Amino acid sequence: MSSEAMLLWSLLFSSIGLGYFVYGRKQGNKVVLYTGIALMLYPYVFSSAITVVVVGVMLMCVPRVLAL
Question: What residue ranges are annotated as transmembrane (predicted)?
Fold first, then answer.
């Protein structure tokens, strides 16, 4: 995938991470708060858009899995 795709995926998951962060801070939920921080920062680590998508979806599922 191209660098434009990487940029757009990073923007999408960082925006979702910001939402998780704000929600976790307001609700006092540490799992959602830290997941939001991870979603905002992890795109800087990976260079492949496919990896960013896979890791982003897995991170988005973390609060749901840990709530069970």
Answer: 6-23, 44-66
- pLDDT tens digits, the chain, 68 residues: what are they? 578 899 999 999 999 999 999 999 999 999 999 999 999 999 999 989 999 999 999 999 999 999 76
The C-alpha atoms of residue 58 and residue 65 are separated, in whole angstroms, by 10
Smallest Cα–Cα separation from 13: which of 46, 31, 25? 46
Distance (Å, whole) CA 68 – CA 34: 17
- Torsion sign (Cα): 60, 5, 51, 11: negative
Which residues, at least 6 apart from 29, have a Cβ–Cβ distance to it below 8 Å? Answer: 23, 63
pTM, rounded to two decimals: 0.90
